[in-house]
């Protein structure tokens, strides 16, 4: 068995010897078990989308700190029922699953057909939790309010990074051609080459396993070639528009807390017996962003 | 559409201005189209496994430069028909798909039930192609004979890195408990924390899309909870044991060639019109390792 969660004390002497900072030697499970209610925040229903598929519900959290125009447009598209009856059109192995359609002949309500790019934003004014480890692509990485991000102090800019499960707004070659009417989610290795080239709107916080297994399309770039291959979208709704009783009541771990900092350390230097060589470092996309049911 | 392959000249002035080394401005397609027959090597039938599933064939290339004992054991297990009739037992989202079984009551032929670890090897004696870009986890990354690898000159050691599609030998907590009887393939973000903690045996060179879509298991760590959820393995064979007419005649691009160096550069600074901000760097796991049908 490829064991990756079991906890044991026996490895601690080794790990302490190689990583003195780890006297506590806590696993992620230990860290989460010790978390306080204030370490968590509920999803904002106004920034949460439910995409209902025949196989179940996908919950997407939007990030208006970085893409406010796209968040507003997605709310408008959902309220116009734009996505309902459209489909998942593309599944490219080790890259993305894509759905929706730009320019579908459907009412768009208050939504715009195209938006200016929200690829980056000023770094100033963000509550940025820094990850100290080096990154191949960015001068600095970390998290902003629960989302993996990067910043370039020289340029004074910040952006969301393409980790697994990140949702973005497809566009054509024109940077002004995206609207959110066509969305993608990353399903393989972190496609960091997309960073700063496309608008990231948020991430999947529940139901990723429904999207990641979509049969790969045989057409160019993984597009499906026949209507039969497509999975229909039952509906996409803003959580705030769904009766409270029907909402997925989820909380995400705040990334600006000591608990999250401890979680990152527990992953940089794994504390279960299975691991023999602690990495001592971690990539921003390898850090889990915990989600749980609201404690009621 | 999330366009990621279209080629256009219009972006070249921008890209040349920001990356002077790119006067050529070639895309990966350009680079591959200009490759010479000597830039490619056929798969060695003795180091190639075919895993036949109801959905089709998965082709795995073994890497005996790093894991010779495991390569030999896998040949012996295949020749004993050890895997035939076993199943895919685990699919954990954004992590691994796993198959086979340690200690199954089946004849093992010449195979050993457990092997010493082949997590790392001496860096000396490897034809290591260096990637100049920084890596979060290793002092240096690059490629050895078509496989992503890393090395630590201080320790004088080298190892294969866990990119998407890498195949490894599951083990329990004891580092001597792996044998190849239980294998996994990485299906999400590169799980680099596994590097140097488990034996990588090779990588999937064809058919990855058959494994990556396996429904995620609902048990702990993505294990399937009922036999019905498991996908049976029809057979695993060494390519050398399969009649020539039934072999997948594949070639992989040599990584110790100028063509591959040019390919890496074409990915570090994408040359198609869709990309507006060239990354200028690349992670070793973001570099495609091209495979093609043998030219006959």
From TrEMBL, chains A, B:
Top-level enzyme category: isomerase
EC number of the protein: 5.2.1.8
Family annotation (PANTHER family): PEPTIDYL-PROLYL CIS-TRANS ISOMERASE CYP38, CHLOROPLASTIC (PTHR43246)
Name of the protein in its database record: peptidylprolyl isomerase
Keyword vocabulary terms for this entry: Isomerase, Rotamase, Signal
PROSITE patterns, per database record: CSA_PPIASE_2 (PS50072)
Domain PPIase cyclophilin-type: 54-238
Protein origin, superkingdom: Bacteria
Regions crossing the membrane: none
Lineage: Bacteria, Pseudomonadati, Pseudomonadota, Gammaproteobacteria, Steroidobacterales
Residues in the signal sequence: 1-23
A Pfam family it matches: Pro_isomerase
Gene Ontology MF annotations: peptidyl-prolyl cis-trans isomerase activity
């Amino acid at each position: 068995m490829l064991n990756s969660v079991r906890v044991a004390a026996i490895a601690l002497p080794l790990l302490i010897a190689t990583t003195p900072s780890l006297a506590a030697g806590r696993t992620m499970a230990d860290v989460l078990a010790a978390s306080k209610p204030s370490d968590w925040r509920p999803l904002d229903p106004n920034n949460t989308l439910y995409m209902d598929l025949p196989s179940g519900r996908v919950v997407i959290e939007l990030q208006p700190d970085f893409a406010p125009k796209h968040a507003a447009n997605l709310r408008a598209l959902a309220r116009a029922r734009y996505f309902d009856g459209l489909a998942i059109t593309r599944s490219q192995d080790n890259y993305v699953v894509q759905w929706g359609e730009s320019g579908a002949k459907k009412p768009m309500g208050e939504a715009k057909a195209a938006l200016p790019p929200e690829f980056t934003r000023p770094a100033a004014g963000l509550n940025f939790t820094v990850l100290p480890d080096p990154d191949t692509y960015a001068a600095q990485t970390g998290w902003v309010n629960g989302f993996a991000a990067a910043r370039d102090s020289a340029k004074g800019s910040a952006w969301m990074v393409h980790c697994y499960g990140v949702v973005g707004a497809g566009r054509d070659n024109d940077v002004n051609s995206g609207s959110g009417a066509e969305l993608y989610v990353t399903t393989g290795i972190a496609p960091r080459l997309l960073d700063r080239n496309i608008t990231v709107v948020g991430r999947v916080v529940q139901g990723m396993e429904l999207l990641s297994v979509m049969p790969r399309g045989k057409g160019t770039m993984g597009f499906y070639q026949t209507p039969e291959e497509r999975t229909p979208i039952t509906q996409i709704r803003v959580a705030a528009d769904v009766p409270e009783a029907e909402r997925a009541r989820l909380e995400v771990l705040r990334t600006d807390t000591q608990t999250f900092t401890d979680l990152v350390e527990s992953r940089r230097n794994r504390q279960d017996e299975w691991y023999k060589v602690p990495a001592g470092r971690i990539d921003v996309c390898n850090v889990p962003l915990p989600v749980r049911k609201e404690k009621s």
